[in-house]
């Protein structure tokens, strides 16, 4: 594979700190707006009472039991997909890397369908473990195909392999759903949304996402060095095989947990890291936390749009994300990632 050196563009830590604070404030504001808007009319006062008091009522119950877990799920899913995309792009030095495009989410989705078919009594933890396994299998198939081709890896070749494998795994999920008459159950996840998220589901998923992001922050310096090129990382004493293995496990955890919660979601892991590099540079000590924040904001905005543009009906979040992500994907393909590197 032809490797491209990337010059680390450092920004002042103080300036980056201000940007992170501003992004966090935007995230808080977006979260509040997401809790307010929807089919049921609620106010900021209702949101405040739901968060800070034991007051009961129909609107308060809607916020506590429906909107709050839904938006918290959106925050962690957006953060998980964005961070996993950032790690993939840095680790592979591929501007087109994304969990959805490299077979991880489709592999997790196929594993989810198989689990529901053959183990209908599986609990949420079992489903999540199955998604982790499926994500790993999907990624290994894609990279295996990419490694077998003459000339080795290339950004475009690996994306083509990912598209083919994703379509194949999606067909498996659909076939399992039709054969075992569980299409309705499977579609609850494959629709790619946070509808119906419960507090019990969050208790299982959130710790894995939190641990994955935390470890990625600890390895951000090593990832920055790894994003230069293999020779540089080795010359600086990096244990590249060990670091890549840990980062690959983190990607599987983040992508698998996301699919277990909302289904097959693409483009967030592609789009957000490119935006982040334009804001904070190419140092992954800054890219990882900013990707988590902007990914959460992006997912909250997409979910809010899905609930409001055709209210009281809902537009699938996956459709909104695809409408925003596909043009960006084509732009990155045309420019080769240079505009945002």
Describe this structure in words.
The chain is mainly alpha-helical. The chain has a single domain, classed as Orthogonal Bundle (ABC transporter involved in vitamin B12 uptake, BtuC). It is 74% helix and 0% strand. 46% of the residues are buried. The model is unreliable at 1-6 (pLDDT under 50).
User: Would you list the SSEs in sequence order as H and E?
Assistant: HHHHHHHHHHHHHH
Q: What is the straight-line distance between the termini?
A: 19 Å
Kindly name the structural category. mainly alpha
Number of strands: 0
Going by CATH, what is the homologous superfamily? Answer: ABC transporter involved in vitamin B12 uptake, BtuC
The largest pleated sheet is described as: none
Oligomeric state of shown chains:
single chain
Care to give the gist of this entry?
The chain has 341 residues and is mainly α. It has a single domain (13-340), classed as Orthogonal Bundle (ABC transporter involved in vitamin B12 uptake, BtuC), CATH 1.10.3470. Helices cover 74% and strands 0% of the residues.
